[in-house]
Specification:
single chain; mainly alpha; 2 domains; 17 helices
Length: 327
């Protein structure tokens, strides 16, 4: 038995990150791989919030529209930094800038609008500290550099970073945020209907105000390079807060759209979805067992059957390791 374990366990390595204490057996990596198979890289453990999905698509829609708008010309300072609107760094700067406007908009209205729920918003804690320390007079900087980022490593840990892979997998852009390849046009036509198809909808109003503001910011010089949040139009901040008040608010207008784009109501993922839609208070085991009762194609059914076969084995491994560690 000892010889068998020596082939699996390693010596202590203090160079490993603290994550190893949370998941010493590496089971999260295994389950993530099986989850990606079931959900086809559409959602994962850090990209699963409908508000953030919609917010990221919304911001990319604004950047795409800015690139296509021949009347939108960069001011001299931005022209020197980024040369043109279609460069990756400029797109990243635009996305970060819009994310920060959104976060501060939520803070401005969280106490006055009933539906606004800041829970789950990326960067909200850092933004709130700044908001309080600077007495609600926080400044915004249009840059892709750390100076303009509320969240540490915002390019990778912010909304656009965490929700980049799912939107790439669905087919809205590639790794360099190229929006205009022929394969992406059908997706953007559907996004256009969601975001701007009804001008008087929550999202339609937010899109109108946000694009007008973004275009003005990149076209006109910002005094001192910093824009005081007090100078952001209240129509825009209120529109942001209303359109993205909570996952529930966003889900009411975006659920059908995202099911169509992600196809999470089809195949193995769809079987799980329909079980969860129809029945409450089920254990994970019960959800999968009921999902397997759906008439799934063999390839999709196999994805769930593999989980059923694997879970007891991994659970036993985890229990064995815990008992060994306690001894």
């Amino acid at each position: 038995m000892t010889h068998f374990l020596q082939a699996l366990l390693t010596d202590y390595d203090d160079s490993l990150s603290s994550d190893s204490y949370i998941d010493p057996m590496g089971l999260l990596i295994i389950w993530s791989a099986f989850g990606r198979q079931v959900f086809r890289n559409r959602i994962n453990s850090v990209s699963n919030d409908v508000r953030n999905f919609t917010l990221n698509l919304f911001h990319h829609y604004l950047v795409k529209k800015l690139i296509e708008d021949d009347d939108a010309v960069l001011n001299n300072a931005l022209q020197r930094l980024y040369q043109n609107k279609d460069g990756l760094n400029f797109k990243q700067a635009s996305l970060i800038f819009l994310e920060n406007v959104f976060v501060f908009s939520i803070l401005r209205y969280e106490a006055s609008l009933v539906d606004v729920d800041p829970a789950g918003i990326l960067g909200i804690s850092n933004a709130r500290r700044r908001w309080m320390n600077e007495k609600h007079r926080s400044a915004l900087i249009f840059t892709h550099e750390p100076a303009g980022q509320i969240l540490v490593r915002q390019l990778s840990l912010g909304v656009s970073g965490r929700y980049k892979t799912p939107l790439m997998e669905i087919g809205f852009f590639d790794g360099n945020y190229h929006y205009h390849k022929p394969a992406y046009q059908g997706r953007w036509a559907e996004a256009e209907k969601l975001i701007a198809g009804r001008p008087n909808s929550l999202l339609g109003k937010a899109a109108y105000e946000a694009y007008k503001f973004l275009k003005a910011c990149v076209s006109r010089p910002i005094q001192g390079g910093k824009l005081q949040f007090d100078d952001v139009p209240t129509k825009l901040t209120e529109a942001y807060a209303r359109a993205f008040a909570s996952p529930q608010v966003v889900g009411r207008y975006a659920k059908t759209f995202w099911l169509g784009q992600t196809e999470l109501d089809q195949g193995a993922a769809g079987a799980l979805f329909h079980v969860l839609e129809d029945t409450e208070d089920l254990t994970p085991q019960e959800v999968i067992e009921r999902a397997l009762e759906h008439g799934l194609p063999s390839s999709e059914k196999a994805k769930l059957e593999q989980i059923v076969q694997l879970e007891p084995f991994l659970a036993d491994c985890s229990l064995l390791f815990t008992l060994m560690a306690s001894r």
